[in-house]
Specification:
DAK2 domain-containing protein; YloV-like; glycerone kinase activity; 16 strands; 18% strand; 562 residues; FakA-like_C; alpha/beta
């Protein structure tokens, strides 16, 4: 029998185990491009539940522990592997809802519900991935008839391991690289940490205390960025950073609570799901805030910090307030909540990295730009905060990366306004989609037109190899320059400019009219201009080539061909 304390400690143990082993899991990624690696995304997703679980008492119910973990993971999910992980644990929340303890049958039901939700979330599920590992473990557990939880979880582990060992036989790319699926391995690492507690052991301890979080930004005006040059301690009118969780009463109107917070403070962010609202506000009177909030449900996870003291301490050390709790405060400060304006029909959120790209999207009409991309996948709660900062009845979200689409879709489900996720997979696709927006058309017509336009864009990328690899017929050494067309490696070399103009020339077709060349943060203006001239010379005057200083990391150049 599993109690709430046991499940709480088991999930904490799993979170710490994946945190400790995330580099090992990251190294299983066979694609040599630097990316938001699987182990890191899974670690940050499960780790998002750590504060809520650590705040729970030993006599908590198993349903309460499952619900707290699932809610936090949903908000903190990063990357496709993180979203799938959060959905698997969402199954625990649904199956154990209202239960004080759980038996083996409840665990089987939890696994089944999690697998069902994960498969539904993936448009085209691929076997030989973490989905397979979870499904096989769930199916064998369900067929076993085992009544003892410890024995059942041992079966889950053995079945999952067999499925993991078989992934190279299901995906040739894994077999060629001599590795198993990274997501499946990460899932087994989490389950291993849980098993230790189920068998009566102490939870695995986290070896790394610091938890990274993708930063957020909006165009323009430095919202939420405070420095010693911009402000003085007396400028902080609402001096207490107040955070808490509301475990909602039935029928509670969190919209009314949010309105109260807005009228009694600033930097308000409220992230809500079915059962819990995560609240953040800067206020002059935390007591007044908490006294009012308790009307909506019981409160947990309190955190109140004196921003005056923090400011003076940072100033004394020669550091700006910008560095103070940057990861925690950026979402709230960058994206303050905005109620829907009935006069505002459409709004836009895009994900991009680099000041130049943020400016480009702002010029195209994007209201909020979430800073993120290939190596820093934003969490669901980051995208949600951006969405709820846009006072429009319908908000279009452009993820601009295939590994961010699922997180955007999860934000769509918990936002308090209509959200349309346009599954753009690259920055050039996102730019073209925005150029195709028609303010006189409705949401459905725009969704179709914008994605049709994005689908006509071919994307080229010039980057470096993050690891040695024998991939897709290419012998690749760490540091090599790689040219990719629509995700496929087409050339390896050492000269960035040469690789770029060769890639652009190879992408040009008879009907090509435009090429957009986007330079990254590691390319100087002079180098970018020289590359522009080379590309224009190679493709001829019939094709218009435009240069944008994107400032993005990872990619020396992005190329959009239409």
């Amino acid at each position: 029998m599993i109690t709430g304390r046991i499940l709480r400690d088991a999930i904490l143990s799993g979170a710490n185990n994946i945190s400790n082993q995330r580099s090992r899991v990251d190294e299983l990624n066979v694609f040599p491009v630097p990316d938001g690696d699987t182990g890191t995304n899974m670690s940050m997703t499960v780790g998002a539940a750590r504060p809520e679980l650590e705040a729970m008492s030993d006599d908590c119910a198993v349903g309460e522990a499952a619900k707290a973990a699932a809610s936090a993971m949903l908000r903190g999910a990063r990357g496709n592997s993180g979203v799938i992980t959060s959905l698997l644990f969402r199954g625990f929340s649904k199956a154990l809802d209202g239960k004080k303890t759980a038996d083996a049958a409840d665990v089987v039901a939890a696994l089944q519900k999690g697998v069902e939700a994960a498969y539904k979330a993936v448009m085209k599920p691929t076997e030989g991935t973490m989905l397979t590992v979870a499904r096989v473990a769930s199916e064998e557990a369900a067929a076993s008839g085992i009544a003892d939880v410890v024995e059942l979880w041992q079966l889950v582990m053995s079945a999952g391991q067999r499925a993991l060992d078989n992934t190279p036989n299901q995906l040739p790319v894994l077999k060629k690289a001599g590795v198993v699926d990274a997501g499946g391995q990460g899932l087994m690492v989490i389950f291993e940490g849980m098993q230790i507690v189920f068998e009566g052991g102490k939870p695995i301890q986290c070896e790394e205390a610091a938890q990274n979080k993708a930063k957020l930004s909006t165009d323009g005006a430095g919202k939420g960025v405070f420095t010693d040059d911009l402000m003085k301690v007396e400028d902080i009118k609402n001096g207490y950073c107040t955070q808490f969780l509301v475990n909602k009463n039935e029928g509670a109107s969190i919209a009314k609570l949010r309105a109260f917070l807005e009228s009694n403070g600033d930097s308000v962010v409220v992230i809500e799901d079915d059962d819990v609202a995560n609240c953040h506000v800067h206020t002059a009177d935390p007591g007044k805030i908490l006294s009012h909030a308790i009307q909506y449900g019981y409160l947990t996870g309190f955190k109140i910090e004196n921003m005056h003291e923090q400011f003076l301490a940072r100033q004394k050390q020669g550091k700006g307030l910008e560095k103070q709790k940057a990861a925690e405060e950026a979402p709230a400060a960058a994206f303050p909540y905005a109620a829907v304006d009935p006069e505002r029909t459409f709004g836009f959120v895009a994900v991009a990295a680099g000041e130049g790209l943020a400016s480009v999207f702002a010029d195209l009409g994007v209201d909020a730009v979430v800073s993120g991309g290939q190596t820093m996948n934003p969490a669901t709660e980051d995208i949600l905060a951006a969405v709820q900062s846009v006072p429009a009845g319908t908000v279009f979200v452009l993820p601009n990366n295939k590994n961010i689409i699922m997180a955007a879709e999860q934000a769509q489900k918990i936002a308090d306004r209509k959200v349309v996720v346009l599954p753009t997979r690259t920055i050039p696709q996102g730019i073209t989609a925005m150029l195709s927006f028609d303010p006189d058309a409705d949401a459905d017509a725009n969704s179709i037109a914008m994605m049709e336009a994005a689908g006509r864009v071919s994307t080229g990328l010039v980057t470096f190899a993050a690891r040695n690899s024998d991939f897709d017929g290419h012998k690749i050494k760490k540091g090599d320059i790689m040219a990719m067309e629509n995700g496929k490696i087409v050339n390896i070399g050492t000269d960035i400019s040469k690789m770029t103009y060769r890639l652009a020339r190879s992408m040009v077709k008879k009907d090509t009219s435009f090429i957009t060349l986007i330079s990254g943060c590691d390319v100087s203006e002079e180098e970018a201009q020289r590359t522009l001239e080379l590309v224009q010379a190679k493709v001829g005057d019939s094709v218009e080539v435009t240069l944008i200083n994107g400032g993005q990391p990872v990619y020396y150049y992005m190329i959009g061909v239409e």
